[in-house]
Design a protein that fits this description.
single chain, mainly beta, five-stranded mixed sheet, 4 helices, elongated
């Protein structure tokens, strides 16, 4: 909590607040200006025009922009918060707060979290506000188990993987400007069991395992999405609505175990891998009227794409273009799933009535 009485302290000559930086909890270790600038890149003692250590917290006025040094507060058990009120911090370097006890961080002008793991393994961090942040990196917030939100609407680049993965209490993610195209960014916020709100409005290509095992998401809006990587949304078991009107391509297991997904985006054309709808258990119909991928001619390409789509035992209807009636040649469709057989109406179905594949 920021002390209100101290926030009101004003330099009566310049009418400026006496300080623009508050670092809570570090009073035993940041004893003077020299200790403070040692945690930075680009500062000298003369850049600090006001300094106060009250025994618990440090207050300072820093007169130039700077970068927070790599490993500066790594594993520090004293730091509780870092408030940069006037936006003097432009970059936070690798592992700066990783494993520390920080709870709150605010960097209003920071555009870059450089390299990796700035806040990884911080089991106390509740929020980090950086509204102008343009990039995220490897494990920036990985395993930050108290983190509640990750709202970075200007981020356009996530350069590597597991950026927000395994954040046990993460509820909300806003990455509305990221198109998903930067390389190596798998598992972006996978295994976040309390995640309920996701904004990915600009995403064109969803990376592999991006939101895998986010088990209580009920709705995802992805109006620009064209393709999904391997396991991109696997085991999102409560995702009832997946609005992706331009989605054309699924890789491998992209929507596996999305139990209640209804409707499946009808724009899908290509199934380039296997198991994409495997164990979509409670969906009465999968309608893919534009599907160009043969549904049963190559086990290596599309095996098990529709396996165990049981509609809770009532039978799931799969609607595909009529061309797939002849492309399967009237033979048993064993590459899709075991026990398929043709009936007299050229309709493929499970022999145990779990699924029917209609040529309409």
């Amino acid at each position: 909590m920021i002390p209100i009485a101290v926030l009101g302290a004003i330099n009566t000559w310049s009418r400026q607040p006496l300080y623009n930086t508050l670092i809570e909890g570090v009073g035993a270790n940041i004893l003077d200006e020299a200790d403070l600038v040692a945690k930075s890149v680009g500062l000298v003692v003369g850049d600090v025009s006001y300094f106060l250590n009250d025994g618990t917290d440090v207050y300072a006025r820093i007169d130039t922009t700077y970068t927070l040094v790599a490993y500066g507060w790594q594993n520090a058990t004293d730091i509780l918060a870092f408030y940069d009120f006037e936006g003097m911090v432009l970059q936070v370097n690798r592992n700066c707060f990783s494993g520390s006890s920080i709870v709150y961080a605010e960097f209003p002008e920071c555009t870059e979290f450089n390299s990796q793991q700035q806040f990884a393994f911080t089991n106390s961090l509740i929020w980090c506000r950086a509204p102008k942040l343009a990039n995220l990196n490897y494990r920036t917030f990985y395993d930050s188990n108290a983190l509640l939100e990750a709202n970075y609407p200007l981020v356009t680049s996530i350069t590597t993987h597991t950026t927000l993965s395994a954040c046990d209490n993460l509820i909300e993610v806003d990455l509305r400007s990221w198109d998903g195209s930067t390389g190596g960014n798998t598992s972006t916020f996978s295994y976040c069991p309390k995640l309920t709100s996701v904004n990915i409005d600009s995403m064109v290509a969803m990376p592999s395992s991006m939101m895998r095992n986010c088990s209580i998401i009920t709705r995802v809006d992805a109006p620009s999405l064209v393709s999904m990587g391997d396991y991109a949304a696997k085991v999102n078991v409560l995702m009832e609505t997946f609005y992706a009107p331009n989605l054309t391509t699924l890789a491998t297991n992209s929507l596996q175990q999305c139990y209640v997904l209804d409707p499946v985006p009808p724009s899908i054309i290509n199934l380039t891998g296997v198991g994409n709808f495997y164990n979509t258990l409670s969906v009465p119909m999968i309608a893919l009227p534009k599907l160009a991928t043969p549904i049963g001619t190559s086990a290596g390409t599309n095996a098990q794409n529709f396996r165990n789509c049981t509609n809770d035992g009532a039978g799931c209807i799969l609607v595909v273009p009529v061309v797939h009636e002849t492309s399967n040649g009237g033979t048993a469709d064993l590459d899709v799933v075991d026990h398929l057989a043709w009936d007299a109406q050229n309709t493929v179905k499970y022999s145990n009535a779990d699924i029917a594949i209609n040529g309409g």
